[in-house]
Amino acid sequence: MFFFLLTIQSVVTVIFLQLFKFLNLIQYRQMDSETVKKWYPIVIFLVAMIYTGSKALQYLPIPVYTIFKNLTIILIAYGEVLWFGSSVTSMMLISFTLMTLSSVITGWNDVSLAIRSLLDVTAVVSTSNATVMLGYFWMIINCFSSAAFVLYMRKRIKLTNFKDFDTVYYNNLLSIPLLIIPSLLLEDWSSHNLLLNFPPEQRQARIWAMIFSGISAFGMSYASAWCVRTTSSTTYSMIGSLNKLPIAISGIIFFGDPATFSNVSAIMIGFIAGLVYSYAKAFPTQKPKSQLSTNYTVLSSSSQSCSDANNVNEK
């Protein structure tokens, strides 16, 4: 019951926000109808990203899914070029390529099988390949919805001057109805399935596990809002790809996953990709002076965002 779990996480997050505000530990702005109208597309993109991701994983192997998610970073980077006037340097493209290569090496068996199935003309009409193509359909929608979510959220944060807890509050509160509705319509709420998911001997432990996952979701929501606000949508997405590397290392060290040459090489290439991206952001390519002395003003990403914030009343 995937959507029901996400609903519980959003509810727990909102409860924690209300509790911390009652204790005067945090502050966030209350709901405003005009702001809700402008923020709701973000929540729609968020739910679409979650739903299409779960559908894609039903038909595609995890390594193929990961490759597409890494390719989405490139889509987001060029989206920031259009929306915020930022730039994509050659070093950034190298880091994106290395990150994608890391995913390809990790799941080469699944990737090669997927490539063969796509190139096999006789298998295109088969039922199994049709399900795979359906997985690619959901995956493509997931890529665009993921890019739209992080790009539009950053845009709205700048326009509305949202603080981090404002973003967490709006995202989670507005997502509750959009999560509970597909849960009621698409998930099995029969007594048999409820008994299967919440057996009497494990019911209390599973309920507490769901509540604990909501607490974790609160921290993740805040960290995501802070990262998008203070850095960029591209950096946020890159970090999302890099955080899989410590998980892979812990799997080898603590859970007995095989330390094969391909696994270790993929982890090393992933870390190199992170270092290259960090260098590209810390030391951006300087433009020649001849390009800077123009008759018009070139706005950077942050300057463009400040200009958008100053014109928020006109929106």
Question: Can you characterise this structure?
Answer:
With 315 residues, this protein is mainly alpha-helical. 79% of the residues lie in helices and 0% in strands. The chain contains 14 helices and no strands. The chain is globular and about 50 Å long. The chain starts with a helix and ends in a 5-residue tail after the last helix.
Give me the Rg, rounded: 22 Å
What is the share of helical residues?
Answer: over 70%
Order of helices and strands: HHHHHHHHHHHHHH
Helix/strand/pairing category: mainly alpha
- Strand content is under 5%
Distinct helical segment count: 14
Q: Terminal Cα separation, in Å?
A: 40 Å
Task: Provide the low-confidence segments as ranges.
Answer: 288-303
Largest β sheet strand count, sense and barrel closure: none
Overall strand count? 0
Shape, per Cα inertia axes? globular
Q: What's the short version?
A:
The protein has 14 helices and no strands. It is an all-alpha fold and 315 residues long.
Q: What is this structure's SSE topology?
A:
Blueprint: H1 2-22, H2 33-59, H3 62-84, H4 90-106, H5 108-119, H6 127-160, H7 164-186, H8 191-197, H9 203-230, H10 233-242, H11 244-254, H12 261-282, H13 289-292, H14 301-310
Helix pairs in contact: 1-7, 1-9, 2-6, 2-7, 3-4, 3-6, 3-10, 4-12, 6-14, 7-9
Task: Give descriptors for this structure.
315 residues; mainly alpha
